[in-house]
Specification:
The complex is a heterodimer. Chain A is built from 20 helices and 24 strands. Chain A is α+β, with helices and mostly antiparallel strands. Chain B has three domains: about 120 residues, Probable tRNA modification gtpase trme, domain 1 (Gyrase A, domain 2, 2-Layer Sandwich), CATH 3.30.1360; about 130 residues, tRNA modification GTPase MnmE domain 2 (Four Helix Bundle (Hemerythrin (Met), subunit A)); about 160 residues, Rossmann fold. The chains are: A alpha+beta, B alpha/beta. At the A-B interface, α17 and α20 of A face α3, α4, α5, α13 and α14 of B.
């Protein structure tokens, strides 16, 4: 039998959110890239919630954009509603969330992929990775075709040995009836890769015409809308937006669930995979929080092209009849017509501790992995890893240093570091509480934090980078000006202060000091600031934030300085922990398992104590001196 | 988790806490001289930092305007000190309290309590210890840490641990609440929350304050050598306690099992502080109340510095004795054959067989042999056979340091509330307080927080 045999630089397996970013990054950096998918009609498919962003995930999208990724641009082109969440709280937790037109999102991404040089889509199922002497040299498809590569990126999402379950129905498919990939796991296992079995789920999709919206609370989009992408023009974001709707479950709903709980595959033991605590099914919520009288149900449109609505908050794997019964107890859903049943999905993913921070397998060079395949959950987490894996595959092929973001630089850094240093017991979801330096990692300053890395990698254009640098300069200059501009206790000044309910001045005070007062801001001081230059809104925003929260920001910056010293102490890859005497057994085992790249990472591994870190530091110092 | 860095100036007691003439507190690090200046008052107001290296200075340690001790300070400049850093050695009066107070003053001035083995580690990292000794340095660090952890845990048994865990629990709940609301703003509302949180913060700060006060009053420091009296019921344990202390504290009857609580007394032996605990006799208890007494007695053994095992010389050893001897194996102790005043006290040898413990014959009733017992204890101590748990003072200082940092963080939370800052700013310093407390309670805060969020709040899509 004759087989196709081809050579490309990079093969990306899977064209979901991780795969699209990975392939685009490689192709844009000049490498011929083949992007495999089970369906070219469904690239960048959103099999669950119809939105992008949200708390901490919005930060990820901003960071992806700053680095030169596509997700932010794509959602800006295809959103149908957008809101900035948490605006009543501090700037660090403001988070953008946009409802997507799912179909448009996918089609728009397809258009970008198909019009990127060096990038080719290929509808085929990859069944094997080819590994020779610890190096991945290619992939093979189910048709027997062989593709020789310099790098392979696994972005298999939830498709490996996928199985969709509700009640006693088991469909051996990927999400939404898409083809599962049933061969690749075997090949990964054969090559020594450890596989985990995870689970997640999705609620039913229902017909808009069968919903009584009068019984629900309407939630509209923001006006004006803030774009995700730093490259999008805010002026062009003002489209006509659609609404989402809010309703609640009640005691009747919970009763039905409790009565039928023995028919839930989650409780009968039919589902063995570990689900994310963050996306509990409605049956989980009812059983685990019996005191809660109601749970929120958020009804989101799947797009403009369809009447299907997504019932956020009510994912389930209960049998079809129970789904009908429980949904119909919810106000406004009394006569609801289900278009697609809710279901749970089980799938294979890899244990991410097998990767290094560039997302390459430690034991198989040239093989990278990103997205849900790494045990994370969510489109944004996937895209972020896809972008990093793509950049780093390209860096490797051009003999350059990998891009590794620190926890103090980006949520992406936190995400990858967590995957590498924590035991992944459930699909990992980004949360703001996971970022210890979140005051520094704001969504509003992602460009200031990360543009330079995107530029250095080659994904951010000269022009875009120059714009960021100019923004930086203007911010610095304006802060300097405000710090050295003093106002006195004139009538005009004190009248303004009185208007905002803050104490009048008795002597001179810099404008910078006034901005810091809780009642005031950069904007409201304009009338007493005669020489204020005309600045762009995003510059003014940075000036305000950086001045207002200066004390807190400085404090976190000092902590970062401390942490950086630990991160800079590298641990040699070949370190034999058995040689390090005096390490406690638990610490030794954990260190062997996680193989941290530096002392900072080692200190974050659960089970490694400060004393173990001291012991390790002494050992490494001794070793270094011996080498000299 | 706080990881050591070499930029901090560290302090520790570097002599054993035996009641000797002097004790030494050492401070090492870049700020050692500057910090010493803050607490040292010399003759004619001379500043330590302005003095030459390798010189000795007479003066006083002063805190809040109060003289704590008369001292000699020795200045050693980097790199010519043990650690290779600027070092101040403060020679003060010996005794737990005096040395402890000087250490506290150093900490209050801004030094950090040294982690176990940290002086040695610094000496090594600064090239003052030969690299061939790396192995030994690592052993010291790990052995000392292990010991510190053990004694820290042993001290934590009881009310202190409970209180700290309660504080941590309360703060963790609030932090999880804020974080849930930040993560899921359409689900958890923080309107009016700042009023509730200020109440919680105030209460927890008061709790912490109370604990700090109790450290300051020396409640956790003045412990002395923990001496536990053990024995079969009616062997004469309570009589011994009464005889040693000269008080009728324990109820003495002929009925076995009279002492059911643990009774505690303090005794001074030639300047040595003994904290003596009389326990219920250990035997297979028949009734519930007695069983609790026996369990209590057993729990006292684990962190005892010295065990006095009282035997009834008129009776042969039985299975209860064997059980007790098994329990105290490896501890420091003395076997006392009691009731020499009785004619049938003839079984001393039977108890003395197969044991490494010294055996003394006494009569608690006539006080015969008591002087010998006291002398034996003193000798054992000075010969180093009883190693008094000096970590008591160190861990107390460490615990206090942790509580001070937690309080500081809560002060910052209150400042933020006062300034009307949004809740995500409050959570920064609540996290800080919890992070400090975690050094005592253990556990990974970041994991605990995520667990708390998911177990207490029904969050998520």
């Amino acid at each position: 039998m004759r087989h196709i045999e081809e050579t490309v630089d990079v093969a990306v397996i899977g064209a979901g959110h991780a795969g699209c970013e990975a392939a685009l990054a490689c192709a844009r950096l000049g490498f011929t890239t083949l992007l495999f998918t089970v369906s070219t009609d469904n690239v960048a498919f959103m099999p669950c919630n119809p939105n992008i962003g949200g708390t901490s995930k919005g930060h990820l999208v901003r960071e992806i954009d700053a680095l030169g990724g596509e997700m932010g641009k794509n959602i800006d082109k295809t959103f149908i509603q957008s809101r900035m969440l948490n605006v009543s709280k501090g700037p660090a937790v403001h988070s953008l969330r946009a409802q997507a037109d799912k179909s448009e999102y996918s089609r728009s991404m397809r258009r970008v992929l198909e019009n990127t040089d060096n990038l080719l889509l290929r509808q085929a199922e990859v069944s094997e990775i080819i590994v020779e002497d610890g190096v991945c040299t290619g992939v093979k498809t189910t048709s027997g075709a062989v593709y020789h590569t310099k790098a392979v990126i696994l972005c298999t999402g939830v498709y490996l040995n996928a199985c969709c379950i509700y009640g006693d129905v088991r469909n051996y498919t990927g999400p939404n009836g898409m083809m599962a990939a049933n061969h690749l796991t075997d090949s990964l296992v054969k090559n020594g890769i450890e596989i985990l079995r995870f689970k997640t789920g999705t609620p039913a999709r229902v017909d808009r015409r069968s919903i009584d919206f009068s019984k629900m609370e309407e939630q509209k989009g923001d006006n004006p809308v803030v774009p995700f992408s730093f490259s999008s023009d805010p002026e062009k974001m003002n489209i006509e937006q659609v609404s989402c709707w809010l309703t609640y479950t009640n005691e009747k709903t919970h009763e039905i669930i409790r009565e039928n709980i023995d028919r839930s595959p989650l409780y009968s033991g039919a589902i063995k995979g570990t689900g994310p605590r963050y996306c509990p099914s409605i049956e989980d919520k009812v059983m685990k929080f019996p005191d809660k009288e109601r749970h929120q149900v958020f009804i989101e449109p799947e797009g403009l092209y369809t009447n299907e609505m997504y019932l956020s908050g009510m994912s389930s794997s209960l049998p079809e009849d129970v789904q009908y019964a429980m949904y119909r107890t919810v106000p406004g859903l009394e006569n609801v017509h289900i278009v697609k049943n809710a279901y749970a999905i089980e799938y294979d993913c890899i244990n991410p501790i097998q990767l290094d921070a560039s997302l390459e397998f430690r034991n198989i060079k040239g093989l990278f992995s990103a997205g849900q395949a790494n045990g994370s959950s969510g489109y944004e987490e996937a895209a972020a890893q896809g972008l990093i894996a793509g950049i780093n595959a390209a860096m490797k092929l051009s003999g350059r240093k990998p891009l590794i973001l620190q926890r103090s630089e980006a949520y992406i850094g936190v995400l990858i570091d967590d995957l590498l240093t924590k035991e992944t017991k459930e699909p990992y979801r980004m949360m703001t509480s996971r970022a210890e330096y979140r005051l520094l990692l704001r969504q509003d300053n992602a460009d200031l934090r990360l543009r330079k890395y995107g530029y250095e990698a080659g994904l951010v254009s000269e022009e875009e980078y120059a714009r960021t640098k100019e923004k930086e300069r203007q911010i610095e200059e304006e802060i300097k000006r405000l710090s050295s501009t003093f106002v006195g206790s004139s009538e005009r000044v004190n009248l303004l202060l009185k208007e905002y309910g803050t104490a009048p001045l008795s002597g001179g005070c810099s404008l910078a000091e006034l901005v810091k007062r809780p009642e005031l801001s950069y904007a409201v001081l304009a009338p007493i600031d005669e020489n204020r230059p005309a600045l762009r809104a995003d510059v003014a925003e940075q000036v305000n934030i950086q001045l207002k929260y200066e004390g807190y920001i400085r404090r976190q910056e000092r902590q970062v300085e401390q942490a950086k010293k630990l991160e800079s102490k590298r641990i040699p890859e070949d370190l034999d922990y058995d040689e390090v005497g005096s390490l406690r057994l638990e610490a030794r085992q954990k260190l062997k398992l996680f193989r941290p790249a530096n002392i900072g990472q080692a200190s974050r591994i659960q089970g490694v104590s400060p004393a173990d870190i001291s012991v390790l530091t002494v050992f490494l110092t001794g070793r270094k001196r011996k080498e000299k | 988790m706080r990881i050591q860095t070499t930029e901090d100036t560290i302090a520790a007691i570097s002599t054993s806490l035996a009641p000797s003439g002097i004790g030494i507190v050492r401070m090492s690090g870049p700020e050692a001289f500057a910090l010493a200046d803050r607490i040292y008052k010399g003759v004619k107001g001379k500043k330590l930092s302005a003095q030459k290296a390798n010189t000795v200075h007479y003066g006083w340690i002063v805190r809040d305007g109060r003289v704590l001790d008369e001292v000699l300070c020795i200045l050693l400049r980097a790199p010519h000190s043990y650690t290779g850093e600027d070092t101040v050695e403060i020679d003060c009066h010996g005794g737990i309290l005096a040395v402890g107070r000087v250490l506290d003053a150093c900490l209050a001035a801004g030094a950090r309590i040294a982690e176990p083995g940290e002086f040695t580690k610094r000496a090594f990292l600064n090239g003052r210890i030969d690299m061939s000794q790396a192995e030994a340095v690592m052993d010291i660090i790990s052995a000392k840490s292990e010991y510190a952890l053990e004694s820290s845990l042993s001290q934590l048994s009881g009310s202190l641990k409970e209180k700290i865990e309660k504080i941590r629990e309360a703060l963790l709940f609030e932090l999880a609440y804020i974080e849930s609301a930040l993560d899921d703003p359409e689900h958890y509302d923080l309107t009016g929350y700042s009023e509730r949180i200020s109440g919680v913060i105030r209460r927890q700060k008061e709790e912490i304050e109370g604990l700090i006060q109790s450290f300051e009053r020396g409640k956790f420091i003045q412990e002395g050598i923990k001496t536990v009296i053990l024995g079969r019921p009616n062997a004469g344990k309570s009589s011994l306690l009464n005889a040693l202390t000269g008080k009728q504290r324990a109820i003495v009857t002929d009925i076995p099992g009279t002492t059911r609580d643990v009774i505690e007394e303090n005794l001074q032996l030639q300047g040595l502080a003994l904290r003596i605990l009389d326990t219920a006799g250990i035997r297979r208890a028949d009734n519930e109340v007695e069983r609790i007494g026996v369990d209590l007695a057993k729990s006292q053994i684990s962190d005892a510095d010295l065990i006095l095992y009282v035997c009834d010389g008129t009776k042969l050893p039985d299975e209860n004795d064997r059980e007790i001897l098994e329990l105290i194996k490896g501890k420091k102790g003395i076997i006392l054959i009691n009731k020499t005043d009785l004619e049938d006290c003839v079984y001393a040898r039977a108890y003395g067989e197969n044991t490494a413990f010294p055996v003394l014959e006494i009569s608690a009733k006539t006080e015969e042999g008591l002087e010998k017992l006291k002398n034996t204890i003193v000798e054992m101590f000075f010969e180093g056979k009883i190693s008094f748990n000096e970590e008591v003072v160190i861990t107390s200082a460490r615990h206090r340091d942790v509580l001070l940092r937690a309080r500081e963080s809560l002060d910052l939370v209150e400042e933020s509330i006062e300034a009307g800052m949004p809740e995500d700013f409050l959570s920064i310093d609540i996290y800080g307080a919890l992070d400090a407390l975690s050094e005592i309670t253990g556990g990974s805060l970041s994991e605990d927080l995520v667990d708390e969020i998911f177990s207490k709040f029904c969050t998520g899509k």
